[in-house]
Amino acid sequence: MPASPRLLIADDEPALADSLLAELTALWPEATLLPAVYDGQSVLDVIDDTAAGQGPDVVFLDIRMPGLSGIDVARELSKREVRPLVVFVTAYDQFALDAFEQAAVDYVLKPVQTERLAETVKRLKARLGTRADSTTAADPAQTLAELVERLAGLQSAAQTRVAPQGGYLRFIKALVGQEVRFIPVEEVLYLEATDKYVNVVASSGESLIRMSLRELLTQLDPEHFWQVHRGTVVNVAHVASAVHLSLGRLGLKMRGRTETLPVARQYAHLFRQM
């Protein structure tokens, strides 16, 4: 492993790039953090413009970036003889994570959790220490290429489930009596799974829709709708406060509501870092 591995972060949100840089500086003090870039093409430019042997050893790629996406960049890197290790930084929910787990490269789920990032650093150190041993590891180009194609397939599948305007759902349709109600997603406070239905709790009232929470979640912007429990998804714009419950658990108070929504332990970090 290089004495001071060079790390490059690519994320179109400078604040998130800076946050990740700070986390990596603390977790991997011996590493050299290159200046962050904010689009996919800049990643390739940095690699192409750097002297041989001086390019990044690891690239942290946001999947959704203007121009070349993280997937596009990874696809290009997989064709090269000399390439950095790739870590995807993603807001994809659980339906995509199995694909990441199958690959030798890693992923970091937004918002970044320190403990999870520490695991990534540990894996990267191991990979950097053994990547020259081609007899004990799978071909990294093949591994990366296969992952890229799986991600591209997942991205394509997700696009077939969202609203036709080229983005996420803008309205949730609910049948109330003989009336079809269109609920703007920005008015949704939280979603709660109820048997084969989802209870949509909005500022205008509550409605049941016949759809699984998992299916609905894939159609909502993950930057705004966060899963906090097996059967609960909240719109973070309407979270009023986080409160401590018994046994060290966390609960959420929503604006204009009196109930407290419990947060499962695996999601508690989302709100402790806010």
TrEMBL record:
Residue ranges occupied by any HTH LytTR-type domain in the UniProt entry: 172-274
Residues recorded with modification 4-aspartylphosphate: D62
SMART domains found in the cross-reference section: LytTR, REC
Organism domain of life: Bacteria
Pfam families per record: LytTR, Response_reg
SUPFAM superfamilies given in the database record: CheY-like
Domain Response regulatory: 6-125
GO molecular function: DNA binding; phosphorelay response regulator activity
Keyword annotations of the record: Phosphoprotein
Protein name per UniProt: Probable transcriptional regulatory protein YehT
Organism: Ralstonia mannitolilytica
